[in-house]
Amino acid sequence: MAQPAVWPDDPVSLDVHAAPAPAYGSGSLADLLPTLAAGQGVPGLAPSIAELAPADRNCVFLIDGLGWEQIRSHPEEAPYLTSLLGTSRGGTGTPITAGFPATTATSLASVGTGLPPGAHGLPGYTVRNPETGELMNQLRWKPWTAPKTWQPYPTVFQLADRAGVHTAQVSSPTFEQTPLTKVALSGGTFHGRLTGEERVDLAAEQLAAGDRSLVYTYYSEVDGKGHRFGIDSDAWRGQLMYVDRLVERLADRLPPRAALYVTADHGMIDIPFDEQSRIDFDEDWELRAGVALLGGEGRARHVYAVPGAESDVLTVWREVLGEQFWVASRDEAIAAGWFGPRIDDRVYGRIGDVVAAAHDDVVVIASVNEPNESAMVGMHGSMTPAEQLVPLLEVRS
To answer: DSSP character for 123?
Structure first.
């Protein structure tokens, strides 16, 4: 007698509530500056990262794109950073989390405001502006939007400056007048310097300029080389070797009573150039059906549905991508804590009707509408350890 056919089980979508949401309130980038400034006596702020001891002079050196796992995987290229791994997060030897999505505009806003994305309102690389219905690129600030309307909260630098703490940012001159800098990192004095050596030397000088000082400095090219060539490239390794020397140079120049914290806005992974790893939204009629706008980036998508099609779009995206992405409705992503413990009313509509965060080494590209982003080797945005975990290395004088 013939045996009945056995069909494979239907694909099971990843549980959105099991996604490793960022550690908002205890160990995320949004908790760093409030903790440091609270230790300097700035009123209205609380020390959320309990492991950090106060210091009179604090310097944060943010290296764009240098995640925790990338340092751990490259001890030969980064001997000094590797030697500091045990100091991370107050000597616990553990990382902190970036926040979701793990992308520069979101993370810098979290650092500077001390708020999660659901409050500061920069919840992605590109998001819909509910007032206009257009996609807003929050890194390049296009189309232009009134900065203080988009992000109305004061930065921690502004609060510290008002409290009498000597406050400074040292970065590329290119960033001095950008709207992202104004909404995320303004307060005190901005100092533009071209080279990494000039920046770390001036950061040390600014740190010594006050009895209480809060100084921020930034370097971008680790991220730049990773996007263009990948983190498995000689170009990326060369940048890692360079920033390793920069961190050591800054550590050697710390004034008395100072603490240096080395962190990042996100990590990065390399994505193969094949159809299985790069799913092209612009060529996929199923994923496009019912979608009015595609926002976010390859590994952290905000999907905005045609009115009335929200449920159908969620169903299709789960059917197509649910084994490789955490695919959530807006309310599910909010309830799971992806964007923080609270969502301001003005931010709610900026979040996609559907939010898709990559679990596997895969991206949703848009080859026609996002040709430059789609051609990148290294990518980031989601909640995997390679993207989400960032260092909080510490040197004290």
So the answer is: -
Tokens standing for residue 323: 């084994």
Report phi then psi at 36, rounded to 5: -65, -45
- DSSP result, 304-351: EEPTT-HHHHHHHHHHHHTTTEEEEEHHHHHHTTTT-S---HHHHTTS
CA distance 171 to 61: 10
**What whole-number distance in Å separates Cα of residue 121 and Cα of residue 143?**
16
Helix ranges (H only) for 188-231 are: 196-207, 221-229
Residue 163: what residue type? Answer: A
Could you tell me the two tokens for 339? Answer: 């964007």
Backbone angles phi and psi of 293, in degrees to 5: -145, 140
Q: Which amino acid is at 112?
A: G
Instruction: Judge residue 13's burial from the number of C-beta atoms within 10 Å of its C-beta, 0-12 exposed, 13-18 middle, 19 or more buried.
Output: middle
Structure tokens given for 287 = 């994923």
Please work out, in degrees rounded to the nearest 5, the angle formed at the alpha carbon of residue 99 by the alpha carbons of 162 and 297. 115
Span 134-192, pLDDT tens digits = 999 999 999 999 999 999 999 999 999 999 999 999 999 999 999 999 999 999 999 99
- Burial annotation 170-192 (CB, 10 A radius, 16+ → b, else e): bbeeebeeebbbbbbbbbbebbb
Q: Does this model's pTM top 0.70? A: yes
Cα 105 to the center of its chain, rounded Å: 7
Q: What are the φ and ψ backbone dihedral angles of 261, each rounded to 5 degrees?
A: -120, 120
265: tokens are: 């806005």
Residue 12: what pLDDT? Answer: 78
What backbone phi and psi angles, to 5 degrees, belong to 297?
A: -150, 180
State how far the Cα of 242 lies from the Cα of 224, in Å rounded to an integer: 14
- What are the structure tokens assigned to 215, written together? 């100084």
What gap in Å lies between CA 56 and CA 69, rounded to an integer? 30
- Residue in 275, 286, 289, 359 with CA at minimum distance from that of residue 324: 359
Q: Is 276 helix (H, G, I), strand (E, B) or coil?
A: coil
Q: What are the two backbone dihedrals, phi and then psi, of residue 35, each rounded to the nearest 5 degrees?
A: -65, -45
Hey, which residues does 58 pair with through a beta bridge?
Answer: 214, 259
Query: Which ranges in 13-146 belong to alpha helices (H)?
Result: 32-39, 68-72, 79-83, 88-91, 104-113, 117-120
Q: What is the DSSP letter of 35?
A: H
